[in-house]
Amino acid sequence: MTSKDILTFTLKAISDRHGENTIAYDMQGYSILADYYVATSAGSNRQLHAIANAIIDAAHLANFNDYRVEGSSESNWLLLDLGDVVVNVFTEEARDFYNVEKLWTDGKKIEIKED
């Protein structure tokens, strides 16, 4: 499975659970850690976990089981490490506070088509 395939099912899962202000950066040639970085916001802690679970379910459907999740049930920020794709799911407040997107400005911002 390619990193682009992982990015595709990830973005669809986020869209299906109504992630907000989703951005993705192509970091190939800029980062040795991952090819793509994604960030999305959730309106509540409950939605944050629904988005993360949708991504995990999509990974399982794609027979992709090499992932890790950082954060807890009380977290306002979950990080899903899908190998070549790293996904950050935040509550709006946590995203504003941490502003991790500033770390990816060297990458190419990917246009995301909303469904």
Characterization of this structure:
Keywords: Cytoplasm, Repressor, Translation regulation. It is found in: Cytoplasm. This protein is α+β, with helices and mostly antiparallel strands and 115 residues long. It has one domain: Beta Polymerase, domain 2, CATH 3.30.460.10. Helix content is 33%, strand content 28%. It has three helices and six strands, in the order H-E-E-H-E-E-E-H-E. The chain has helices at residues 3-16, 45-61, 92-98, and strands at residues 20-26, 36-42, 68-70, 77-81, 85-91, 108-110. A six-stranded mixed β-sheet has the order 3-4-5-2-1-6. Helix 1 (3-16) crosses helix 2. It starts with a helix and ends in a 5-residue tail after the last strand.
For this entry, give a set of tags:
6-stranded mixed beta sheet, 115 residues, Beta Polymerase, domain 2, 33% helix, single chain, alpha+beta
